[in-house]
Amino acid sequence: MNRRVTLAARPNGMPKESDFALDEARDPEPGPAEVLIRNRFLSVDPYQRGRMSESRSYAQSLQIGDVITSQSVGEVVESNDARFGAGDWVVGQTGWLELAVARGGALRKVDPSVAPPTTALHVLGTTGLTAYFGLFDVGEPVAGDLVVVSAAAGAVGQLVGQLARLAGCRTVGIAGGEEKKRLLLEEYGYDVAIDYKSEDVGAVCPGGVNVYFDNVGGKISDAVQLRLALGARIVICGQVSQYNNVQPELAPRLTALLIVFRARMEGFIVSDYAHRFDEALPRLAQWLHDGKLRYREDVVEGIENAPRAFIGMLNGENRGKTIVAI
Ligand SMILES: NC(=O)c1ccc[n+]([C@@H]2O[C@H](COP(=O)([O-])OP(=O)(O)OC[C@H]3O[C@@H](n4cnc5c(N)ncnc54)[C@H](OP(=O)(O)O)[C@@H]3O)[C@@H](O)[C@H]2O)c1
Predict the structure, then answer these.
(1) Which residues does ligand 1 sit against, CB inside 6 Å?
(2) DSSP 3-state assignment of 174?
(3) 282 Cβ contact partners less than 8 Å away, ≥ 6 residues apart
(4) Digit-coded pLDDT (tens) for 68-98
């Protein structure tokens, strides 16, 4: 039987393990042009929280009983698509389940000789592409710029700082706790690191922030936005500090600062750049191969532990990219 994690109840605030169910379904069979995959690694991401609620978003909400949506990496068991054969590694949006069926056209082959297959879920996959297009296309960094990144020790954030340094920028990483601060400085090469739980976020940017890569929103972003440089670019990648709010948070209205600093604030979704993934992935792979990009994976064993890993990630317990290994 095929074990799957489904949505048992819509979370109210921070999700609880009882909002998820582990069930079993009959093994799926691939139809014409479809591929049967044995998933080995499941992705755990903040956007999944949005899919669990009913509020308007850029993608459809999950219904109660649906398998939790996610990217997954697995091995092909059987294929009715000539592009794939048994034993191939693939990545696709197949969800938190052991055996998945997907259209061949919705899958991407993963070459395990280039990098470990798990990297297709981060540096050579969605979070790598998010860091790449968010920073380079939306943030438009110029050598010498000061780039500030929130949730800097997470899956996206750990890469943004390194990409900014490759572009000749100075970098400030913001994360929670002393241990993450050390990771920012020693592993990901941030010039300055701030523990937002015990330090003043604003104190470190006296010269003005040219690019703010925002993963969290809330009070951290309010503090950074008071310290923009003229012509600053604010990249709205994520607002994870807000995802569990039952009511929208009341906050200072800082939009007038966009006038003062002639700044631009822009949100983006990585899938908007799908037509350019083939441009970014070889560059990311080359930097990884050359040792210019480092990453951390936070791997939890067992599909039954996926909900706990998800809740832990929202609470900041992860170091780098959260993955569930089956
Ligand atoms: N626009 C897109 O296409 C796109 C694509 C992928 C991801 N994203 C967004 O990018 C952001 C990062 O995603 P990720 O996958 O890399 O997750 P992640 O950073 O690996 O994990 C989430 C992190 O958020 C931080 N956090 C949680 N609550 C917080 C709060 N109240 N205040 C400050 N920090 C808080 C925690 O780090 P600390 O311990 O440092 O608090 C936690 O480790 C998310 O907002 C996500 O939605 C956007």
Answers:
(1) 45-47, 126-127, 130, 151, 153-157, 175-176, 180, 215-216, 218, 220, 237-241, 268-270, 313-314, 316, 318
(2) strand
(3) none
(4) 999 999 999 999 999 999 999 999 999 999 9
